[in-house]
Write the structure tokens for this entry.
Amino acid sequence: MTTPVDPVRAAFVSQSYRTSEAVDYTVLALYPTANQIEIDTPFDATTAGTLATTMLNATKGAAQTYTMTIDGLITLADLAGTVPQYTFTSSTFGVSARVCRLVSFKTDWINNRTQITVRG
């Protein structure tokens, strides 16, 4: 015995691809070798479009990333509500009081340290 397939679901899974793309051609004109970011998600088209636009707006400006280790732990609870920002100064990188936003972190629970990557 076979179970009938919902026609809406059948149409959805039979599509060869389902993507949403946000492109800012002014960014591509300035940075023709900019990386394209692809993320597979289970989102519907509206949610995926919102995510793509949000990510493009957050990353379309020129910026540098820095990776460093700080004392103390960062956990997911620290990200509730907003993404942390840091003011970064480094004579090594020639940076003074640059405001950077956290883009990733790796917590070392044993040594009470966190490796962070910031962008700004």
Remarks:
- The two ends are 59 Å apart (CA to CA).
- The chain has three helices and four strands.
